[in-house]
Specification:
The structure holds 2 protein chains of 2 kinds. By secondary structure, chain A is mainly α. Chain A is 81% helix and 0% strand. Chain A contains 12 helices and no strands. Chain B is 26% helix and 24% strand. The chains are: A mainly alpha, B alpha/beta.
Chain lengths: 269, 262
């Protein structure tokens, strides 16, 4: 493992994985306790439209993806607030439309087709240095948001009507939450790919929830678990020559079933 | 006469065109302790949610502490407390009893970056008031239903409200705690106006100042008496009254001799 770190791309991969784990733990926790897994999945898939758009217009893929994903996320958040009872159907529509748009726009883009598999399933082993700075920046934004609004987020997540009666601006906070989910998704595309992101956002918090007494603790433990899965997955991927994204997700999946098994034993014993 | 804290004028509210409250007029004055009685689905919880600004009226006005709750309630929310009915929310959520009670210290524009030592002391004190001082570090979903309900009451206590809405606040606590909590409400009533939804007529009768019968319409009876007629009017059928435990007076003596309750 040590000599692996002498390779620059492995150092980058490891650092990117750890940076992503931080915001994955914080945002994943908020996604799980607020039960917005579906909308998060929708955002992740719709992000493909942004990738298509970026290549079609010749923009930087990251910028194009961020812009498009934020717009799609805002649309979904607005619909889920305005039309609660049919929100999931509409989110499903945007989910698929975003992906379809991405594929068509890439068809229409002349010339060399980039390796699209890396966007779908992640490409931690090819993270450029600039992405590391962006990831660190996003981490800072996410952590500042969680720190600044921790108590309001806690109240909103646990009991929304009560939070409203305490004057918590739940609408604005919810929109901010969804927008940060969108940013997190864009960031995690590197790690797990947009199809697999949802597992990385949900598995670590799901495991952590059973072991923590506070939301803060859950965020920290989830971030730690996410980092563990990422490092193990990366190591498996390197030593067995497997695709990194799915390796990370399968390790996380193993952790998920392990935690289910221990939980069962725990409740029996 | 005390100034009004709640003024409802010509209020109408419907869920999916199904009227829940029609032509409601109600004035509740400062210092009152009102029991809301009525059948399930009669609109008691809806009425509370309209007063809290959680629901907006289809027509009419709900004014609470001088503020139109159909618009943005704003700062006035900081003066209102609420004990909701639903205790089953969010099982598995990692939150300690103390942290849950602390969310009651949130108020419009306050505590954005954290809670003060005074907030924590107030929260711990409220937990002690409801007999859960030694449970402050426990996860809420590890507590029993009755204990959880007491935590919710503690959360409302730390808001130090001028006006407190309680929606079936003792439905899952045991008899002993039920009596102690109602004594606590009585004490609170010296500083705050209380609006209590309850099915527990026996205990409500001895702790309130007025009764409002809610069944799509609202009738406010300014005396602390629950009469057999009142019960029958709200439930719209003959009611057989069974008191649990020790014998105690459930209904006021009534010269109409109760009509049909045999």
């Amino acid at each position: 493992m040590i000599e692996v770190l002498s390779l620059e791309f492995m150092r980058h991969a490891l650092l990117a994985g750890l940076l992503a784990s931080l915001c994955c733990g914080v945002m994943g926790t908020l996604v799980v306790v607020n039960r917005i897994v579906f909308i998060s999945g929708g955002i992740a898939h719709a992000a493909y439209g942004g990738i298509g758009l970026a290549f079609f217009l010749g923009l930087s893929p990251l910028l194009g993806t961020v812009g498009f994903t934020l717009a799609a996320a805002l649309a979904m958040a607005w619909i889920s607030l305005a039309q609660k009872h049919r929100a999931d159907a509409v989110i499903g529509v945007i989910w698929a439309l975003g992906m379809a748009l991405g594929v068509i726009l890439l068809d229409l883009t002349p010339g060399y087709k980039v390796d699209l598999m890396s966007y779908l399933f992640g490409s931690l082993l090819t993270v450029p240095r600039t992405d590391l700075f962006l990831m660190a920046g996003l981490d800072a934004v996410v952590i500042l948001f969680a720190l600044a609004f921790y108590n309001q987020l806690l109240a909103l997540s646990f009991d929304e009507p009560f939070a409203r009666t305490r004057g918590v601006p739940v609408r604005r906070l919810y929109l901010a939450l969804i927008l940060l989910v969108a940013l997190t998704v864009v960031l995690l595309i590197r790690v797990a790919g947009l199809i697999l992101i949802i597992a990385l956002l949900t598995i670590p918090p799901f495991i952590a929830e059973a072991w923590c007494r506070t939301l803060k603790g859950m965020m920290l433990l989830a971030a730690g678990l996410c980092a563990l899965f990422t490092v193990l997955g990366l190591w498996l991927s390197y030593s067995l020559d497997l695709t990194s994204g799915p390796s990370i997700i399968l390790v996380a999946g193993a952790g998920f079933f392990l935690s289910l098994a221990t939980k069962r034993l725990g409740t029996r014993g | 006469m005390n100034p009004p804290v709640i003024e409802i004028q010509n209020l109408n509210f419907a869920y999916n065109r199904q009227p829940v409250l029609s032509q409601v007029d109600l004035v509740i004055r400062e210092g009152d302790c009102v029991a809301l009685l009525g059948p399930n689905g009669g609109g008691k919880t809806t009425l509370l949610k309209l007063c809290l600004g959680l629901l907006k009226p289809d027509s009419g006005r709900v004014t609470v502490l001088g503020r139109d709750m159909g618009r943005e309630p704003g700062q006035v929310l900081g003066r209102i407390g609420y004990v909701p009915q639903d205790l089953s929310l969010n099982p598995g959520f990692p939150i300690t009893a103390l942290d849950l009670v602390l969310t009651g210290r949130l108020a419009p524009g306050r505590n954005r970056f954290g809670f003060s030592r005074r907030d924590r002391a107030a929260a711990q004190g409220a937990l002690e008031t409801v007999g859960l001082g030694d449970r402050s570090g426990w996860r809420v979903d590890r507590l029993s239903g009755g204990q959880r309900q007491r935590v919710m009451i503690a959360r409302a206590l730390v808001t130090e409200p001028e006006l407190l809405f309680l929606d079936e606040p003792t439905a899952s606590v045991d008899r002993e705690w039920q009596a102690r909590l109602y004594d606590l409400f009585l004490e609170l009533n010296q500083r705050s106006t209380l609006v209590i939804v309850s099915h527990d007529l026996s205990i409500v009768a001895s702790h309130i100042k007025s009764v409002a019968c809610v069944n799509q319409t609202v009738h406010h009876h300014p005396r602390p008496e629950i009469t057999a007629r009142m019960i029958q009017e709200t439930y719209q059928c003959p009611v057989e009254l069974i008191a649990h435990g020790l014998p105690h007076r459930v209904l006021a003596e009534h010269d109409e001799a109760g009509g049909r309750d045999d």
